[in-house]
Protein backbone atom coordinates (compact mmCIF):
# COMPACT_ATOMS: atom_id res chain seq x y z
CA UNK A 1 0.00 0.00 0.00
CA UNK A 2 2.95 2.28 0.56
CA UNK A 3 3.66 1.74 -3.14
CA UNK A 4 0.27 3.25 -4.05
CA UNK A 5 1.07 6.47 -2.19
CA UNK A 6 4.53 6.59 -3.75
CA UNK A 7 2.94 5.93 -7.16
CA UNK A 8 0.72 8.99 -6.76
CA UNK A 9 3.85 11.12 -6.29
CA UNK A 10 5.48 9.49 -9.33
CA UNK A 11 2.40 10.18 -11.49
CA UNK A 12 2.29 13.77 -10.22
CA UNK A 13 5.96 14.30 -11.08
CA UNK A 14 5.43 12.72 -14.51
CA UNK A 15 2.57 15.21 -15.04
CA UNK A 16 0.30 12.24 -15.79
CA UNK A 17 -3.22 13.09 -14.57
CA UNK A 18 -4.70 9.77 -15.71
CA UNK A 19 -2.14 7.69 -13.80
CA UNK A 20 -2.60 9.99 -10.80
CA UNK A 21 -6.39 9.57 -10.78
CA UNK A 22 -6.25 5.83 -11.40
CA UNK A 23 -4.69 5.30 -7.96
CA UNK A 24 -8.01 6.36 -6.36
CA UNK A 25 -11.44 4.71 -6.13
CA UNK A 26 -14.25 6.43 -8.06
CA UNK A 27 -15.68 7.76 -4.77
CA UNK A 28 -12.37 8.53 -3.06
CA UNK A 29 -11.90 11.48 -0.72
CA UNK A 30 -8.79 13.56 -0.14
CA UNK A 31 -8.86 15.59 3.07
CA UNK A 32 -5.97 17.99 3.12
CA UNK A 33 -4.84 20.91 5.18
CA UNK A 34 -4.32 22.92 1.98
CA UNK A 35 -7.62 22.64 0.15
CA UNK A 36 -11.31 21.80 0.58
CA UNK A 37 -12.30 18.13 0.67
CA UNK A 38 -12.31 16.51 -2.73
CA UNK A 39 -14.88 13.73 -2.91
CA UNK A 40 -14.40 11.83 -6.16
CA UNK A 41 -11.65 10.63 -8.46
CA UNK A 42 -12.56 13.40 -10.91
CA UNK A 43 -12.50 16.16 -8.25
CA UNK A 44 -9.14 14.91 -7.00
CA UNK A 45 -7.72 14.96 -10.51
CA UNK A 46 -9.11 18.44 -11.22
CA UNK A 47 -7.65 19.79 -7.97
CA UNK A 48 -4.15 18.36 -8.39
CA UNK A 49 -3.57 18.49 -12.17
CA UNK A 50 -2.82 22.25 -12.36
CA UNK A 51 0.03 21.91 -9.85
CA UNK A 52 1.68 19.21 -11.95
CA UNK A 53 3.16 21.94 -14.15
CA UNK A 54 4.44 23.84 -11.11
CA UNK A 55 6.03 21.40 -8.65
CA UNK A 56 8.18 18.32 -8.39
CA UNK A 57 7.62 16.41 -5.16
CA UNK A 58 9.69 14.06 -3.09
CA UNK A 59 8.32 12.30 -0.04
CA UNK A 60 9.79 10.08 2.62
CA UNK A 61 6.95 7.88 3.83
CA UNK A 62 7.31 6.31 7.24
CA UNK A 63 4.60 3.72 7.83
CA UNK A 64 3.65 3.51 11.52
CA UNK A 65 0.74 1.07 11.34
CA UNK A 66 -1.12 -1.05 8.79
CA UNK A 67 -4.23 -3.16 9.37
CA UNK A 68 -6.00 -5.22 6.73
CA UNK A 69 -9.64 -6.21 7.21
CA UNK A 70 -10.77 -8.15 4.17
CA UNK A 71 -11.02 -5.76 1.23
CA UNK A 72 -10.31 -2.66 3.37
CA UNK A 73 -6.93 -1.63 4.76
CA UNK A 74 -5.84 1.26 6.97
CA UNK A 75 -2.38 2.83 7.01
CA UNK A 76 -1.09 5.53 9.33
CA UNK A 77 2.28 7.17 9.01
CA UNK A 78 4.48 10.21 8.88
CA UNK A 79 5.92 11.82 5.81
CA UNK A 80 8.20 14.64 4.90
CA UNK A 81 7.03 16.26 1.67
CA UNK A 82 9.49 18.41 -0.26
CA UNK A 83 8.13 20.56 -3.07
CA UNK A 84 10.55 22.11 -5.55
CA UNK A 85 9.49 24.40 -8.39
CA UNK A 86 9.76 22.97 -11.87
CA UNK A 87 12.02 24.82 -14.23
CA UNK A 88 10.39 28.15 -15.09
CA UNK A 89 7.78 27.95 -12.29
CA UNK A 90 7.55 30.83 -9.84
CA UNK A 91 6.12 28.94 -6.86
CA UNK A 92 8.07 28.73 -3.59
CA UNK A 93 9.93 25.60 -2.51
CA UNK A 94 8.73 24.04 0.75
CA UNK A 95 9.24 21.19 3.17
CA UNK A 96 6.37 19.93 5.36
CA UNK A 97 6.30 17.25 7.99
CA UNK A 98 2.95 15.50 7.94
CA UNK A 99 0.95 12.72 9.51
CA UNK A 100 -1.40 10.80 7.24
CA UNK A 101 -4.12 8.22 7.39
CA UNK A 102 -4.91 6.32 4.21
CA UNK A 103 -7.77 3.88 3.75
CA UNK A 104 -7.51 1.51 0.81
CA UNK A 105 -10.08 -0.68 -0.95
CA UNK A 106 -9.14 -3.81 -2.84
CA UNK A 107 -10.16 -3.76 -6.50
CA UNK A 108 -9.40 -7.23 -7.83
CA UNK A 109 -5.68 -7.77 -7.25
CA UNK A 110 -4.98 -4.08 -6.68
CA UNK A 111 -5.38 -1.75 -3.71
CA UNK A 112 -6.79 1.72 -4.51
CA UNK A 113 -6.74 4.77 -2.28
CA UNK A 114 -10.24 5.31 -0.91
CA UNK A 115 -9.62 8.00 1.73
CA UNK A 116 -6.46 10.01 2.27
CA UNK A 117 -6.26 12.44 5.17
CA UNK A 118 -3.22 14.48 6.16
CA UNK A 119 -2.21 17.28 8.46
CA UNK A 120 0.99 18.88 9.58
CA UNK A 121 2.61 17.11 12.48
CA UNK A 122 6.20 18.07 13.24
CA UNK A 123 8.59 15.39 14.32
CA UNK A 124 9.56 15.68 17.97
CA UNK A 125 12.75 17.72 18.33
CA UNK A 126 12.09 19.79 15.19
CA UNK A 127 12.46 23.54 15.38
CA UNK A 128 8.98 24.59 16.49
CA UNK A 129 7.74 28.11 17.17
CA UNK A 130 7.14 28.71 20.85
In brief, what are we looking at here?
With 130 residues, the protein is of the alpha+beta class.
What can you see in these coordinates?
By secondary structure, the chain is an alpha+beta fold. It has one domain (2-120): Nuclear Transport Factor 2, Chain: A, CATH 3.10.450. It has 3 helices and 5 strands, in the order ααβαββββ. The protein has helices spanning 2-13, 17-22, 41-48, and strands spanning 24-31, 55-69, 72-85, 94-107, 110-120. A 5-stranded mixed beta sheet has the order 1-5-4-3-2. The chain is globular, with a radius of gyration of 15 Å.
Structural topology:
Layout: H1 2-13, H2 17-22, E1 24-31, H3 41-48, E2 55-69, E3 72-85, E4 94-107, E5 110-120
Parallel strand pairs: 1-5
Antiparallel strand pairs: 2-3, 3-4, 4-5
Number of helices: 3
CATH fold-level topology: Nuclear Transport Factor 2, Chain: A
CATH architecture: Roll
Query: Helix and strand string, N-terminal first?
Result: HHEHEEEE
Number of domains: 1
Question: What spatial order of strands do you see in the largest sheet?
Answer: 1-5-4-3-2
Intertermini distance: 36 Å
Beta-strand level of the residues, as a percent range?
over 45%
Shape: globular
The strand count comes to 5
CATH class: Alpha Beta
The overall pLDDT average reads 92
Range of helix content: 10-25%
Low-confidence stretches: none
Query: SS-based structural class?
Result: alpha+beta
Reported for the largest beta sheet, the result is: 5 strands, mixed
* Radius of gyration, whole Å: 15 Å
